[in-house]
Amino acid sequence: MLVFVTHRRLKPGSFEEFRKAWEPDEMPEGVREVAYHARSVSNPDEIISFGLAYDMTLEDFERMRQAGGDDSERQRRMAEFVEWTGVDGVFEVIDEIHWGEPA
Hints:
Blueprint: E1 2-10, H1 15-22, E2 35-39, E3 46-53, H2 58-67, H3 72-79, E4 82-92
Antiparallel strand pairs: 1-3, 1-4, 2-3
């Protein structure tokens, strides 16, 4: 499984505009059809955006990246609302831990 994650601080009060700019024209094949934006409990302008690719290998990701379109327009749209970007990358899940009984 791969995890796509970006940590950003948005310009104050700009989440709704950022959210519209963030929306891709279409999600890459293999990426789950849901993505998440999580807001810091101590700063409403600090968010983490992430998506999960359950059945994607690193090789699949490289093929997708090479075959994929240019994402620069979407990045440009988002940049208007972003003060800074910290972590921005693709991570491979190497361990899965479960506690307790399933709900």
